[in-house]
């Protein structure tokens, strides 16, 4: 699939000085991963420590997208900061679960739930 058929849209909203809500629409794959990475790197450069990645409108994600999420997770953790995935579609959630990414990077159903985990990280303990 070409980028022209499946363009990526990335919107950034600052919820706080150190918290960025990154809303992604479209396929997050080898053709679009570099653009996604640029947005995340820009937010890191501007001092954001916490990243809320809204994947509600991402119907497909391959290993390129997962690798970028894991990379920003590692960089944010070293700050210290955090990365949270919000509301992935079932196909994306299945990939996150099968690869173990959802064990490392918390998955929330809403922005509010993710913000609660930013404010109270001890609640991230999985049952």
Automatic annotation (TrEMBL):
Residue stretches making up the STAS domain: 17-118
UniProt xrefs under Pfam families: STAS (PF01740)
Signal peptide: none
One Gene Ontology molecular-function label: anti-sigma factor antagonist activity
Classification via CDD domains: STAS_anti-anti-sigma_factors
InterPro entries: Anti-sigma_ant (IPR003658), STAS_dom (IPR002645), STAS_dom_sf (IPR036513)
Similarity field: Belongs to the anti-sigma-factor antagonist family.
Name assigned to this protein: Anti-sigma factor antagonist
């Amino acid at each position: 699939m070409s980028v022209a058929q499946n363009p990526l849209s990335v919107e950034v909203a600052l919820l706080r000085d150190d918290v960025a809500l990154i809303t992604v629409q479209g396929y997050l794959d080898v053709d679009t991963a570099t653009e996604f990475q640029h947005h995340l790197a820009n937010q890191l450069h501007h001092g954001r420590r916490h990243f809320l990645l809204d994947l509600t409108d991402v119907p497909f994600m391959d290993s390129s997208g997962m690798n970028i999420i894991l990379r920003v997770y590692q960089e944010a953790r070293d700050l210290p900061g955090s990365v949270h995935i919000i509301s992935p579609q079932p196909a994306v959630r299945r990939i996150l679960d099968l690869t173990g990414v959802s064990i490392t990077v918390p998955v929330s159903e809403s922005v509010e739930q993710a913000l609660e985990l930013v404010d109270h990280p001890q609640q991230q303990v999985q049952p």
